[in-house]
Design goal:
The complex is a heterodimer of chains A (228) and B (252). Chain A has helices at 6-23, 25-46, 50-73, 78-82, 85-91, 96-125, 133-157, 165-175, 177-191, 197-225. Chain A is mostly helical. In chain A, helix 3 (50-73) packs antiparallel against helix 6. The termini of chain B are far apart. The chains are: A mainly alpha (228), B mainly alpha (252). At the A-B interface, helix 7, helix 8, helix 9 and helix 10 of A face helix 5 and helix 6 of B.
């Protein structure tokens, strides 16, 4: 029996993960609700003045999205590890890295994309000017896949451990400092009427590198963590 | 050809041989470290003149700067050992990488604490979001992540390999963080305070600094020797050579 071509295997993994996510639609709503609640808390804590909220809006939205993704990241391999399908994936004749890339893509589609969809609402709640919103969305579109890819490598490393939630935060947050700096930098520059392309170009460059390298690193990390 | 050198290095990778070697080297390294630290501190705290601008407060650099160098140097050692551990699966390299991490974290912590002690009278604040300070803080978090991941696994060797991988990801990230933080800081404001460059330093201040650097390096090596010895005993608990050492200790 010959192995299925890589493209068919990738499509199957993607379809399977999206179907699984769709069957538990409630889980998709959780990060969105979390982000909504966190953003609601900020005006309570800082006072409802327009000028202050406007100044912190982009940063708050970015950090909230980052934290919401961090919470969801823990579940990336959890189910597959428990029912053993991750081992099957590792034993598959196709190379592991592209298959994991598909899993990361499915995870991004189900957790980060809903967050990006409600990001204009979150930013609007904090009175971010309408003209800056496209820049924020662009920054999120570049930053969230980068976080998914970076996070997937670290989740893979903690796959063999029992409690990984706080550990994951400790490992991921230092690594995403540059992502936050460039994404927030672009929005802040746009808000001040300065050119904002350069930081986004850096994010794009980093994303291009991560798309190539992160699945490979993720596969290597998974093999280490599961000792296969 | 002198091929006894690579041969000796290869042999040193074996745990019992390294255990004996580290046991013999440790007292010498420690004694040299104490001597160098005593000389460096005497030179720095007593002999060196006080700074024309900062008075005596600048003397903290004799602790601060060597610690900062060590925080980066140990991360480098850890990354190289991690690479060796992952590629050639050398057990000793895993142990060296994992036992370097707490020492490095301690030096990073000392750097941050002494820096803020110095910053209070000089800058008027404990902490400022300067590029260097922020990078150093991120470095501390990277160390803590490596240590945390190592201890999260039940199997120590598996934990060491996973943490070694994280250390390698970290070393790719350190320059990126440093660069981005620099960029971030200069976007908002130019750097207002620069730490004295060592090249622009008077010789009377430079030699104690270099002596302290040697002292911290020697201390790191001595500390690494004892940590690795303890770890090797725990890791090789069931082996014959450990049993012999235990019997020798027991009959004493």
């Amino acid at each position: 029996m010959s192995a299925a071509p890589l493209s068919r295997a990738c499509a199957a993994v993607l379809r399977r993960d999206l179907t699984l996510a769709w069957r538990r639609r409630g889980d998709i709503a959780m990060p969105v609700l979390y982000a909504l609640i966190v953003v609601t808390l900020f005006p309570f804590a800082l006072g409802p003045e327009d000028a202050l909220l406007q100044r912190i809006a982009s940063g708050v939205v970015l950090v909230t999205v980052l934290l919401a993704m961090l919470l969801a990241l823990d579940g990336l391999f959890r189910g597959d590890l428990e029912d053993g399908s991750l081992e099957q994936l590792m034993l598959a004749p196709q190379p592991l890295a592209p298959l994991l890339g598909m899993k990361i893509l499915a995870h991004w589609l189900t957790t980060a994309l809903p967050l990006i969809v409600i990001a204009p609402l979150l930013a609007g709640m904090l009175h971010l000017p309408l003209a800056v919103q496209p820049v924020l969305l662009l920054a999120l579109l570049l930053a969230t896949p980068l976080l998914s890819l970076l996070g997937a490598v670290l989740v893979a490393l903690t796959a063999g451990t029992r409690r990984s939630g706080m550990l994951l935060a400790l490992m991921l947050l230092p690594l995403c400092v540059p992502v936050v700096i460039f994404a927030a930098g672009a929005v802040a520059a746009a808000q001040q009427g300065l050119p904002w392309i350069a930081p986004l170009a850096w994010l794009g460059a980093a994303l291009a590198m991560a798309v190539v390298l992160a699945p490979l690193a993720c596969a290597a990390a998974l093999r280490i963590a599961l000792d296969a | 050809m002198a091929n006894w050198i690579p041969l000796w290095v290869h042999k040193l990778g074996s745990p019992p041989l390294f255990y004996r070697f580290a046991g013999a080297a440790r007292p010498w390294l420690l004694a040299l470290a104490v001597l160098a630290a005593a000389g460096g501190l005497y030179g720095g705290l007593v002999l060196a003149p006080s700074d024309y601008q900062q008075g005596d407060a600048y003397r903290i650099i004799f602790i601060h700067v060597p610690s900062a160098w060590m925080s980066l140097f140990i991360y480098g050692v850890m990354a190289v050992a991690s690479f060796v551990a992952l590629v050639w699966r050398v057990k000793l390299a895993e142990v060296v990488a994992m036992e370097s991490a707490p020492v490095g974290a301690a030096f990073t912590f000392i750097t941050l604490v002494t820096g803020s002690l110095w910053g209070k009278p000089m800058w008027g604040t404990w902490w400022t979001w300067d590029a260097r300070l922020t990078s150093e803080l991120v470095l501390l978090f990277l160390y803590l992540g490596v240590i945390g991941l190592y201890h999260a696994f039940e199997d120590r060797r598996q934990g060491a390999r996973a943490a070694a991988f994280l250390a390698l990801i970290g070393i790719v990230n350190v320059p990126i963080v440093h660069f981005s933080v620099n960029w971030w800081n200069t976007l908002h404001q130019g750097s207002t305070v620069r730490i004295l460059g060592p090249s622009k330093m008077a010789p009377s201040m430079l030699w104690p600094l270099l002596t302290m650097m040697a002292a911290t390096k020697l201390y790191y090596l001595a500390s690494l020797c004892s940590r690795v010895r303890a770890d090797l005993l725990a890791l090789e608990g069931g082996k014959d050579w450990v049993r012999k050492i235990a019997e020798a200790e027991g009959s004493r």
